[in-house]
Amino acid sequence: MSRILLTGGAGYIGSHTGVELIQAGHEIVVFDNFCNSHPESLDRMEQITGTTIRRVRGDIRNQTQIETAIRAHDCQAVIHFACLKAVGESGERPLEYYDNNVAGTLSLLRAMRATGVRTLLFSSSATVYGVPQDLPLKETHPLSATNPYARSKLIIEDMLRDIYRAGPEWRIGILRYFNPAGAHASGLIGEDPPGIPNNLMPFMAQVAVGRRNTLRVWGNDYPTPDGTGIRDYLHVVDLAIGHLSALRHLDTPQCLTLNLGTGTGHSVLETLHAFEKISGTTIPHEFAPRRTGDVASCYADPSQALAVLGWKAERTLDHMCEDAWRWQEKNRNGYRS
Ligand code: NAD
Ligand code: UFG
Questions:
Q1: Is the CB of 125 under 6 A from ligand 2?
Q2: Nearest bound ligand to CA 122?
Q3: Residue nearest to atom 3 of ligand 2 (CA)
Q4: How far apart are CA 119 and CA 170, in angstroms?
Q5: Does residue 179 contact residue 234 with C-beta atoms inside 8 Å?
Q6: Is the pTM of this model over 0.70?
Q7: pLDDT tens digits along 211-260
Q8: Fewest 10 Å CB contacts: which of 21, 83, 177, 311?
């Protein structure tokens, strides 16, 4: 058992990971400024786990706040989810993205150095592979960034590699997530993006429940079997469990980089039809031009995670749709329902 600080722990992936950590016997402290989440998610996590969750309202850019939280709660490790993550918005507001994501991470790392905490899992993303040159994507694929959000992830990854080089006592796990989807089986926690969802699954779920009228399918002229984009959708609970495996593996100093994905790609239309089947709804959709910056196909080679951690995603696309639908039906307007 250890006590772990979760920056951004009230968000989509943080809340699901928090639940799995608690159920595996860890204690968590959620550090979040709620800029893109709702404290209600923490109440729901308490409902699922039957525990009281320690919570700190704070900003990762404030080093003192993080140091105080680590000391007050005697945390031994950090999982760093806190981040701004909207790709399009990052192009319009690059300063905010570099400030929140890069400067925020610097401040977190300084706080960790000051408090002697040397164990860190970082939420990276498949976006650091840029435009895929070879599929499936291996961890050795060249890295590049096509927008400020992606560049912020790449800069942080580079910072972490430098920190490990200079201080080999660090235990760092860089986890490159593919496309998290779905929700907790209880229907109590799930994805609740503010405003209009950028991502396919929450947009589709909101159309299915009648909150939005039509799904726009961005491009049906890609070189894929049905012309729509292919992604590696990964159940958020599988992803959460991946963090537990990675944390267990960080029992010795290292800087580990792993893909967390299923290795299987699904097109937009396949995903849409799966969601319709599971929800028993018809999802009105129309084809629209390609979205700037999108690639045709992106899916992981997850074999390293299996070899190193013994971790493998178990849940299928149907399972993701079933859980996303349960969450959406029970919480039509998310946590503000
Ligand atoms: P999310 O927006 O639901 O959660 C992020 C959380 O961080 C929110 O609760 C937000 O309030 C908090 N936060 C943001 N800036 C903060 C700050 N300065 N101080 C304190 N808290 C702050 O996002 P998510 O989907 O749960 O993503 C978690 C992590 O996973 C992010 O780092 C994201 O880049 C990464 N990731 C997500 C996806 C995805 O598709 N969801 C894919 C790849 C990587
Ligand atoms: N799509 C639509 N209509 C929509 C939303 C998405 O057709 O309304 C399509 C996209 O064009 C793409 C697929 O659905 O083909 C998936 O799009 P998402 O926006 O859900 O996911 P992306 O792969 O574009 O991006 C996500 C995260 C990024 C992250 C990346 C890799 O948003 O932050 O996965 O991890 F970098």
A1: yes
A2: 1
A3: 217
A4: 6
A5: yes
A6: yes
A7: 999 999 999 999 999 999 999 999 999 999 999 999 999 999 999 999 99
A8: 177
